[in-house]
Amino acid sequence: MEHHSEHQPDELKRDILIYITIILLLGVILLISHLQLHILGIFLIVPIACIEAGILGFYFMHLMTKKRTVHLLLLLTVVVFVTLLFWPAWDIVYSPRTPSEFTTY
Known about the structure:
- 0% of the residues are buried.
- The protein folds into 2 domains: 9-65; 66-105, no CATH class.
- The chain is an all-alpha fold.
- It is 73% helix and 0% strand.
């Protein structure tokens, strides 16, 4: 028994629009990378990549219907981000290194 929905053409249009958006954002990332902006390029590319990942997760992984899962995933992301952000600083402050290891003569 086939199951047809009256919303199917709208979902197909939405999916095609999402694919086109992802491809365009990828094109912007590639353009930025070819401009060789160094650090500025990173600050431009990372938010665009995060937006792409959010769009893909929200629509194609159906995270829009799983609110609790999304909140737990965001919490895990924040914990990992903060850990990776402060881990090098903690290592520099508390590791037993001599000052000569940080100098470049």
